[in-house]
């Protein structure tokens, strides 16, 4: 849970401090790479950590992950220019890739599947708290001390986690299998394909147009690298991701549903503060407070729901209920945005959304881990985290593209120009109404897309087999 806290905090705590970093270090044009570099490295390494932990043990691999993360954190705090900060954030990402994967895989080493939902619920609660506390802590620490301390704060938490891991979990997880060759070709091809995809998503619509030769060329390269990766994995003696895993209906459907759920949630939640501020006229603090019911609902349902799943031994009813509430919430979000519902209705909606997330997210992990043998627990969990990360990145990019296209179609491309020129506080009433109307339509389009994807995910999960959770840790599934 401490390692999960590190990863969850660092994915959001930095964003608040980005303007101050740019002021101190310069390099404003490359500021986005402080986030993109971290995301790129953490996404690429997720399946690697899962596979290596199966082969060489969870304790050793977890120690390396936390150690790299802490070294990267220290160096980020000492960075003297933007290039150094981006490079050290990439190093931090190399460590962060294992934190989510190994924390969840380690539960599979010590907790039987039937009891696992209780612990998955606790981890979901930690993630929910960190997602709210991250931006708040980032702002407070940056204002009171310095942006450098948002990296230094990782040291005591990570040091405690690393000490507990090295002392208590040395023998957990896979066995050393040095006779098996490491799938270097598969790792390189997956890293190249993932890098190309994330670079396309980061630059599309900003550095180059979506309908351009750069986009077409990168899309072709991604398909070529993906095909080469699948070819390599099919022939590797010990593949990075065993393709046969996806012949299991639970793993195939569960992975697809996970990607679609994160696609829809990230695509909607990233732009909700924009709606609250530009359309409803709320302050940044007020828009942040609108997220609190979601976190409260997620904490409540993940904790209580996990206990009920463990008691009954079946996850499918709770998974259907959770995804059903998420789909209902996103459909209502699109309707509320279009008709201009008052803030209190969004507060209720965010609470329902949080309840659905708390039931849905942990049970997808439980379902996949229950369907795989213990010897492949890390590989399956790593593949799931990898697929989720890609789903979230694609969701944000797709939602942003829909919003930009809607603004252009409405001939409202000048809305951002008005805000840049005058700031929100300097807008006249007429300008405020123009901006609100433009973004109401644009963001409604993004929310509709996310609702459609979530409804499709719910339809896909209806065909998920109702497999009873195993009562003990065993090397068969």
List the helices and strands and how they pair.
Elements: H1 2-10, H2 18-25, H3 33-56, H4 58-78, H5 82-110, H6 116-144, H7 149-152, H8 154-168, H9 184-203, H10 213-235, H11 249-269, H12 272-278, H13 284-289, H14 292-312, H15 316-339, H16 343-370, H17 377-409, H18 414-422, H19 429-461
Helix pairs in contact: 1-5, 1-6, 3-4, 3-5, 3-9, 3-17, 4-5, 4-8, 5-17, 6-14, 6-16, 9-10, 9-17, 11-16, 11-17, 11-19, 14-16, 15-16, 15-19, 17-19, 18-19
Descriptors for this entry?
single chain; 477 residues; mainly alpha; Growth Hormone, Chain: A; 3 domains; 19 helices
Backbone structural class: mainly alpha
Note the beta-strand portion: under 5%
Proportion of helical residues? over 70%
Total DSSP E strands: 0
Major sheet description: none
**CATH architecture term of the largest domain:** Up-down Bundle
Q: Tell me, what is the CATH class of the largest domain?
A: Mainly Alpha
Structurally, how many domains make up the residues? 3
The helix count comes to: 19
What overall form do the CA principal axes indicate? Answer: globular
Mean pLDDT level:
79
CATH topology of the largest domain: Growth Hormone, Chain: A
Determine the oligomeric state from the structure.
Answer: single chain
In terms of per-residue confidence, which ranges show pLDDT below 50 for 5 or more consecutive residues? none
Please give the alpha-carbon distance between the first and last residues: 26 Å
The CATH homologous superfamily name of the largest domain equals MFS general substrate transporter like domains
Helix and strand element order: HHHHHHHHHHHHHHHHHHH
Rg over CA atoms: 22 Å
